[in-house]
């Protein structure tokens, strides 16, 4: 099979996934009703970009988010989604730029704040990442993602004891959280080695 034929089949099957809501990933990506009737509609294009994202085809997802931004340059969801894709593609500084654009429009959007924190974390800018996670925790002190992400950033800064306190906060909410259990163990191991 030639590459051209392979990619044409890939596109066909992705369209089939979108139209029939088949799942190519562990979690099905739900489509809104009547999206399929309007292939150039906002919802259809956004759903298609999201489907590509969820199937790890970040370059193709980026095409659809760029298409959306040409039409809706101030759409917070699309700006954030593009930032997430750029972060996945390891273009962290550009991702932060899109998160900042989204936050200029909606400074309280928790999803965007968390994603900006993750991009900062990926750049090794852990103190700035913690500032993002703290903004979320001010309003939502039991947000497991923000608690875990802050704990991981503290760990990277060598503040192991403080990291453990954040992993413990998660375990009070959900004692079976595997991510918190694993990261707490790693932080406790570092504490033992440093004493």
Labels describing this entry:
195 residues; mainly alpha; Serine Threonine Protein Phosphatase 5, Tetratricopeptide repeat
Account of the 3D structure:
The chain has helices at 3-20, 42-54, 58-71, 76-88, 92-105, 110-122, 126-139, 144-156, 160-173, 178-194. With 195 residues, the chain is an all-alpha fold. It has a domain at 141-195: Alpha Horseshoe (Serine Threonine Protein Phosphatase 5, Tetratricopeptide repeat), CATH 1.25.40. Helix 6 (110-122) packs antiparallel against helix 7, helix 7 (126-139) runs antiparallel to helix 8 (144-156) and helix 8 (144-156) packs antiparallel against helix 9 (160-173). The longest helix is centred in the first third of the chain and has 18 residues, at 3-20. The chain is elongated, with a radius of gyration of 20 Å. Residues 1-38 have low confidence and may be disordered.
């Amino acid at each position: 099979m030639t590459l051209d034929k392979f990619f044409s089949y890939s596109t066909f099957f992705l369209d089939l996934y979108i139209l029939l809501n088949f799942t190519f990933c562990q979690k099905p990506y739900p489509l809104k009703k009547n999206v399929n009737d309007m292939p150039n509609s906002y919802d259809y294009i956004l759903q298609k970009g999201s489907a590509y994202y969820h199937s790890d085809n970040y370059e193709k997802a980026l095409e659809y988010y760029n298409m959306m931004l040409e039409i809706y340059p101030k759409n917070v969801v699309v700006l954030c989604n593009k930032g997430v894709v750029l972060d996945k593609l390891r273009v962290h500084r550009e991702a932060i730029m899109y998160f900042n654009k989204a936050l200029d429009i909606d400074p309280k959007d928790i999803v965007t704040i968390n994603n900006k924190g993750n991009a900062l974390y990926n750049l090794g800018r852990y103190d700035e990442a913690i500032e993002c996670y703290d903004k979320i925790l001010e309003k939502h002190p039991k947000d497991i993602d923000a608690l875990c992400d802050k704990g991981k950033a503290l760990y990277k800064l060598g503040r192991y004891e403080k990291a453990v306190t954040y992993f413990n906060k998660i375990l009070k909410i959900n004692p079976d959280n595997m991510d918190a259990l694993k990261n707490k163990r790693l932080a406790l191991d570092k504490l033992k080695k440093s004493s």
